Amino acid sequence: MPPHPDTWLRVLPQGLFCEPGDFYIDPQAGVHRAVVSHGHSDHARPDQAAVLGTPETLAIMTARLGEGRAGRTQQPLTYGHSIEQNGVRITLVPAGHVLGSAQVVLEWQGSRVVVSGDYKRQPDPTCEPFQPVACDVFVTEATFALPVFQHPPAQAEMKRLLESVALFPERAHLVGCYALGKCQRLIAELRRAGYERPIYLHGAQASMCALYERFGIGLGALLPVPRPAKRGETVLAGEIVLAPPSAESNPWSRRLADPVTAVASGWMRVRQRAKARGVELPLVVSDHADWPDLLDTIEEVGAPEVWVTHGREDALIYALAQRGVRGRALHLLGREEDEVEADVAEAVQAEAAGA
Amino acid sequence: MSLPAFADLLERLIFTPGRNAKLALLRRWFATQPDPDRGIGLAAIAGELSFTLAKPSIIRELAAGRTDPELLAMSHDYVGDLAETVALIWPEADPRPNRPPPDLSEVVETLELAAKADIPRIMADWLDVLDAGGRLALIKLVTGGLRVGVSARLARQALADWAKTPVEEIEEVWHGIPVPYRPLFDWLEGRAERPDPKDVPVFRPPMLAQPLETADIAALDHTAYRAEWKWDGVRVQVSAGPGGARLWSRTGEDYSAAFPEIMDSLDFHAVLDGELLVMREGEVAPFADLQQRLNRKVVGPKMLREYPAGLRLYDMLFDGTEDLRPLPFDTRRERLEAWFARVKPRAMDLSPQVAFVSLDQLSALRDGARAAGIEGLMLKRGDSPYVAGRPKGLWWKWKRVPLSVDAVLMYAQRGHGKRSSTYSDYTFGLWRQDENGGRELVPVGKAYSGYTDQELVWLDRWIRNHTTGRFGPVREVEKELVLEVVFDAAQLSGRHKSGVAMRFPRISRLRQDKPAAEADLLETLMAMVENRPEA
Ligand SMILES: [Zn+2]
Ligand SMILES: [Zn+2]
After folding, report:
1. Which among B16, B75, B414 is the nearest to A147, CB-wise?
2. Residues of A with Cβ-Cβ distance to B68 under 8 angstroms
3. Is the peptide bond before B36 cis (omega within 30 degrees of 0)?
4. pLDDT, tens digit (0-9, with 9 covering 90-100), for A56-71
5. Quick check: is B172 in a domain?
6. Could you tell me where the DSSP H helices lie in B344-411?
C-alpha cells in the first residue's frame, strides 16, 4: 500500500517540506532547495539556494527580486515535464493563476499529491488554463472560500468599466490592480472587449507588462502616465490608467483628471470592503478560484483528502465534510489574505524609486 | 431589462462620492429608461416608494431554504449586511431560467396586488433570474433599505439639469404628482402643459438671504430694511389646506412625520415660512436640542415632552388660495400678523421685528446678542417680493462675529471625490489638566473648510511629513501645529469627549508662529458655552 502523504509531506516553520525529496514548496524564507509555484511575493521569496520553477516564473522572480536574489541556481522545468529528485517525481502543470503559474505534482512510491499554489478556473488570455490532475491529496488555497464569492465573467466587468469611461469622458479612470497577473489580464480582457486605445501605466506596472510581451503575450499599445505640461493642469481625461492598488491615495494621482477610482479584485464583491477602501468603481475580477470553482475542482481531482493552505479554511472544510472529503487546515504562515494589499509595499517602493 | 439597469444605477450611486458624477448618472437614467420605470426608479431613490408586506424576515427565510445554515451564518458574519449576504449567496440556477428579469413596474404592481402568503414564492422567482447586483437591488427596494446617498433634492436637481428646466419649477409641482410622475415627464419632454397641483400641498422654493460683508454695509440704505433676529434652528415651510398638510425643510425634504406637534396645529389654509426650534416656555433651546429631534424619523412621548418643537414665523406665501409672493415684504408682514391674530395657531409664534435707527445701533445689538438660539440678524428690504432662490440685495443675513480658539491639530483624514488624495479633514484639540498634574490634549472638533487652496496644499504636505500613526484613512500627527479655529457657538454636549460641541467650526488661519504649548485651554472654550446650567 502506498504511503499516506502525511508521512512524507510535512508543515515546517518555513513551509511545506517534502522529506524524501529534501525540498520545500513555496517556502517563506530562504532554504537550500525550493520548488516555486508562481512569481507572487507570498510564494516566491528571495534568497533560495536552488529554485525550481517554470521558465516564466523564474524570469518573473529575477525581474521582481533582482539578479542576485532570485535563487543562486535556477532550474527551469516546462509544463508537463517531470524530473526526479531523490526518488520523488516532480511535474509542473498549469494552474491558470498568472503567467507561468504551476501546480506542483509530487509522486512518491505510488502516492500522488498536487500542491496547487494559487489557481483559478475562469478563462484568462494571459496564461495557460488550469489542468485537473487526479490525486490522493489535493493541497488548495481558500482565499475566496465562502459561498458569497462567485466571480462574474471578466468580460462583464470590462463592459462596466468601458461604460463608465463613456459616461465620464472628462475624467480619467484609475484602475488599481496587482502588478503581476491582474494588470496584464485586465489589459488583455480590455483588448478582447474591443478597446484599442493606448492604456496608461504607473511605473510599477510597466516592467511586468514588458516581461509578458517577451513571453509572447500581446498587450497592445501601452504608455507611461505623462506629467502635465503646466503646474495645476491634469492629464488623461477619458483614458484608462492602471496603477498599483492604493495609488489613488498618493500625491502621484493628482496629475490625473478628476479620476474615477476603480479597483479590480475578488474582494470587490463585498460592498463594505469596497466602500471602506473608498472605491468608486469596484470591479470583481479575481485570479483566485471562487466558491463554486473550489468545490468543482476538488470534485474533479477526486482526492479523498484536501489540505487547505490559507484563507477561509473553516467554511471549505465544513463543506467538504458534507461531501465525504476529509479536510485539514495547514495554517501556512505568510500567505497574503488580500491580493490587493499585497501589492502596496511594492508600489510604495516603486514610487520611492521615482516611478 | 429594467431591474438590472436600476441595479447598475444604484451600484454606481452608492460608490460615487461626487455630486456632479451622481447628477450625471441620474441624467443618464432619465434619458435612457422608458416610462413608467424611470419614474419608479426616481421615486425609489427619492424615498417615495414603500412596500409593507415584504419584510426582511421573508428574505432571511428564503435564503435559509436555499442554503446551508452554517455557511449562511458564516457568510452573514463576514459580509455584515443580511440583504447583501442573501444577494451574494443566492445559488444561481444553471442554466438560468429562460424568463426575462422583471421590470421595476412589474415588481411594484405585483407586490401591490399580492397576497402576503404568495410573496416568498414571487420573490424567489425573481431572485432566480437576476444576477447578484439585481438581487441586491430587488431586496433593498422591497424591504426599504435603499441608501444611495442621493437626497430627493439632488434627484430633482438632476431632473432639472436633464430637462433644462429650473429646479424651482419642478419643486412647485413635484409633491402634487403621484409616482411614476407621468405628467411630470410629459411636461418636461414637451408633450404636455405643466401639471397643476390644485389643492395638494406642494413645496414652494424659499427665498434665501446673502451674507452681508463689510464691503456691502457702507452702501446700505438702512431705512429701506427691516431687521429680525436670525434664529439658530432649521428653516422650514408649512403648507396646509383642504388637500392636506406638510412640513418641509428648506430643500423640500418632508419633515411631517417627525414633528407631530406641528402637524397637529395645521388646521388652517395657508403657506408659511419660519424657523423650526425646540422651545421651552417661549425660550429657544440650543441647536443641539433640535438635533435630537431631527435625528429621528419617529418620536415617542418622552421626546415630545423633553424636546418640544415650535415654529417661529416670519413670512407668509399664501393666505388661503391667494398668492402673496408678489406683494412687498411689509405688506406680507401685515398680512401675517393679521392672520396670526385671527387664527392663533398652536405651537407657533411670530418672530419679532427689531427696531433700530442706525446701522451702528444694529451692529451693537447684533454683537450683544449672545443668547442661545440667536445667530445674528436678518435684514429684509421692505419692498421685496418673495423671490425663489438667492436674489441679490433683497435679503441679507448678518451673522455676529464668530468666536475663535487656537487649537492643536491632532488627526487628519482624506476627503472625498476630488479631495480623496488630500488630507483635508482635521480633528483638533485643546489642553486640559490630566490626573497627574500634567497636560493632555482633548479633541474638541473637526473642520474641513475655511482654509485656502494654498493652505490645503501646505497642510497636506505637513501632515504626510509629521505622521505618527495610521488607522485606515486617518493619520495621527505630531502635536505641533496650531490652527486658529472660528465657530458660531459653543454648546454643552454629552456626546463629545470634551463635553462641548462647536457649531460650524472652520480653519481661519494656520498659526505656524505659535508653539503648540501656547494653544488654548479647554476651559477657554467652556467659558464660551451658552447653555450652561444656571449655577
Ligand atoms: Zn498568487
Ligand atoms: Zn498567494
Report:
1. B75
2. 147, 319, 322
3. yes
4. 999 999 999 998 899 9
5. no
6. 359-368
